Amino acid sequence: MVKTKVAKASEVGLNKMIGVQINGKYVLIANVNGKYCGMEGICSHMGGHLWEGKLMEFVVKCPRHGSEYDVRTGKLLKGPWVPFGKAHDLPVYIMTVEGDELFADLP
User: Fold this and answer.
1) CATH fold of the domain at 2-106
2) pLDDT, tens digit (0-9, with 9 covering 90-100), for 43-92
3) What is the pTM of this model?
4) Interior CA angle at 19 toward 17 and 23, to 5°?
């Protein structure tokens, strides 16, 4: 894992989320009650941009078909069945804050 600057903390409002692209990888960054969480930003079901969905506490809901993930763990909480299998858990990234800079441990 490589500690990588992903955003400014001030860009992610309280109980809001953003999506960033770093080295071809989409990362969802959520600020839930002052805790920053980072995870894969693309839904495992049909490739929806999760940051365009709805954030409900620590749960993000995909705007395409409603898959839901816990932003702390990447665990799939709800997802549709598809011919090739169900949506699956997503990787999470350890987030650190240094001043106004947000860093994620990325592969």
Assistant:
1) Rieske Iron-sulfur Protein (2.102.10)
2) 998 889 999 999 999 999 999 889 999 999 999 999 876 655 678 999 99
3) 0.92
4) 150
